[in-house]
Amino acid sequence: MWWLLGTAVIAGIAEVMGWAARLWSSKNPTLDTPYLMQISTTILAPTPLVAANFIILGRLIGRLGPQYSRLSRHWYLIIFSSADAIALIVQAVGGAKASLAVRSHGDPEVGGHIMLGGIAFQMAAITVYMVLAVEFLLRFSWDRPLRRISSPKEGPTHYIDDGSKWMLFGLGLSSIAIFIRSVYRLIELIDGWTGRIITTQLYFNVLDGAMIVLAMFTLNILHPGFLLTDDNRISNNVIHTKCATDSEIALGDVKDSKVKEMASDSIVAV
């Protein structure tokens, strides 16, 4: 689970920095540095967390059955991680432009519009990701694959274990929280730098901060390292069970009691 370091961990560090800067700015409202820090970090921080959700969904697809998904787990990673990276770059450029405008006592609206474009692009990517995830879950539940499996190695049978169930619940909760935050940020920037939304602290606390905290705690409690320990475990269990069943069938033809006892012990070991 090393990929969590470059996604969720970085997002958490950036969120802490952003909220520390907001506290610093509230104590020193005339300073530019903390104000610019909190603008940039709280806008950019959740983006790596979104990437973590994309990767988790890909793992679940590979675990439960890629035949039920419109995209393969690898294409999920390529498409949505690329979209996330583009959104991050656009938001960073917008944040930098707005920061420079503030430092030079200019108008940060241009930078705000660029950030708005980045957030809108990110929200569109999250929307498509959630639609495809819902389709995958429905097809899995109804056992309606989009394509046939040519080899057992391409995906496990139609079965879901407890770890996958909890991971799906955690992924859904985290994704909804991040989506709510994205909608809020989109409306906030549309309303402008002096609008009612951006100047009301309660909105930011609940619809931004609390949503990211919820997503973070969900990922910590329902952790993929605990719930998705081995993508191949289910399919291996199916193979072992089938071998044991075949052995039991063959055992019925054995007449010698000693041989049958030794074979029974072998089946138990399997």
UniProtKB/TrEMBL annotation:
It is found in: Membrane. GO terms for cellular component: fungal-type vacuole; plasma membrane. The chain crosses the membrane at residues 42-62, 74-94, 114-138, 202-222. The keyword Acetylation does not apply. It is a multi-pass membrane protein. Pfam families: RTA1 (PF04479). InterPro entries: RTA1. Keywords: Membrane, Transmembrane, Transmembrane helix. Its main location: membrane. This is RTA1-domain-containing protein. It comes from Meripilus lineatus.
